[in-house]
Structure formats: structure tokens, C-alpha cells
Known about the structure:
Layout: H1 7-25, H2 28-45, H3 53-77, E1 89-90, H4 110-116, H5 121-132, H6 137-144, H7 148-161, H8 172-175, H9 188-200, H10 203-209, E2 210-219, E3 231-232, H11 234-246, E4 252-259, E5 262-269, E6 272-282, E7 285-292
InterPro entries: ECF_Sigma-70_Domain, NTF2-like_dom_sf, RNA_pol_sigma-70_dom, RNA_pol_sigma-70_ECF, RNA_pol_sigma70_r2, RNA_pol_sigma70_r4_t2, RNA_pol_sigma_r2, RNA_pol_sigma_r3/r4-like
Protein name: RNA polymerase sigma-70 factor
Domain RNA polymerase sigma factor 70 region 4 type: 111-162
Amino acid sequence: MELTGTEEEYSTYRPLLFSLAYRMLGSVVEAEDVVQEAFLYVNESKPDHILNPKAYLCKIVTHRCIDHLRSASKQREVYVGPWLPEPLVVNEAPRKGPDELYTHKESLSTAYLLLLQQLSWTERAVFLLREVLQYEYNEIADIVDKSSANCRQIFRRAKQALTRVPNPDTDPEQAASPITSVAEEPAASAVDQFVQALLTGDVNRLLNIIKTDAVLYSDGGGKVNAAVRPILGAERIAMFFSNLVAKTVEGFSYSVTTVNGDTGIVTYTNGQPLNVVTFQVQEGQISGIYLVVNPDKLKHIPALRLDT
Length: 308
């Protein structure tokens, strides 16, 4: 079987490849670039005798992701404040299909993507291919150029690493690069209560929906004003958002939409994206809030259509 680079193949494999690249990189723009590069490479090289086109493309994307991560490692070391992934904003219902595993929202959450950052590049690839994309170990071995037995060990080690949950109060060095539980709860109800409490200025309601030991991470990347350390505790978080609301200017608007597989908030100024907020919910309360204000991480989000 050959890869012919047709539009049908692109349509078939792109969702799967993007889901892998985005989870590997935490960047919408870079993931899209990697997928495009993979198809361009196939079109130019015209490989023959490809028995499994999907696995072949996954291999190209995986190695290109690792190259991107390797080249960006120095930039990450000097990043100002907490690093958060680029928000994946979806304004329409995703299609259903066997290859469209990006609809597994649990593995798209901001908390989950941050958790993956704790793994080495190879561990991340093996973990995603096995846990999210459900590849067999012999398939993973071919993609990452390791033995099947080695891939089993890598996956086991990665899964064990992801179960460690540091407390930002007692382990402040980890607070700027948080690890959280993989388990996620639907955020819709909690986010709705959060928004209504902010809009009405109901601080007590806000404190009730935010867990006492909640943490807020704010990513400005040194480009705009943002907290360079996590904000700990419901009272401090409530005060932070209350101050933000008090500073809103004319032209401010917001949209509650699907962000990283669950309910999130995109705010705008005169129709241009200002920030994106995602949440982690535990036992019906908000335990983690992730605020992306770095303008470089919002460029891919379409402007809000304003009534003329």
C-alpha cells in the first residue's frame, strides 16, 4: 500500500496526527505545522511499500515533535512564570469517528497536558500512543525505534510518574510546573456558577465554588502582566478575578465555549482575544484555574464577530 498524498488521506489521518502532535507539544500552531510538514514530506519523498500508512505518518509526526521539543528546550528553561499550553478552542461539535480520538477530552485538559510535560520526550510519545491512541506495543516500538519490551517498561515508568501529585504549599518549586491527577470532572456547572458569581459580584458564591486549596496559574510569558508565581487559596483567587472584572473596559466581552475538551472561557476586547481560562474540577468545586494571557498563545484564536 502506498501513500499518495490525496485529500482523502489528509482528511482521514489529519485528526489523529494533530491529536498526537498537540498533546506532545502543547501548541496548536506547532502541531498544525508538524502535521503539514509530515504530509509535505510524504508528497515529496513518495515512499513505496508502506504497509501501514497511519503508523508511518505517526512515526514522522512523533520524530518531528521530538525535534521541535529539543530545539525549544532552551527557551522553556528561561520562560517567565508558569508555562501553560496553547488553548485549543472548539466552537463547533467535533465529528465522531474511529480515528478522531482527539474527542477524548480527558487527555486534552490543561491539567493533563501539564502533567505530560513532566515526562521525557520519548516517555510522552510512548504514553500517548498507548494510553490515548491505543496502539499495540509492537506498533509503538516501530514508531519510536525501541523494542516492544522497552516500550512496555517506558509506558509503565511514565504511568507511575504521572501518579505523583506534589502539594504547591509544601513543594513550591513544583508549583510553577504543576502535576495533577489525570481524573477530570465535567466543568460546565462549576464554570457557569463561577461566571455568574463574577458578573453579579457575589464573592461568597465565588468562594463556595472554588476549593479552599485551589491554585491559579497565569501564563503571560513575560509579554504582558501576569502572576509569575501560582496564586494559592480561594480567597486570593476570588480577589484576583474580582480585580480583573473591576478593571474591564468598554469593548469587553466573553464567550463560554469548549476549550481543551471541556467548558472554558474566552474573553475579548473589541472582538480580539484577550485571555483564555480553563478549569480543573474536583468534587463539584474548582480546584485548578489556568489563565493564558500570553498574546503569542492566542494568535490562532479567531476574533469575535461583532455586530455592525
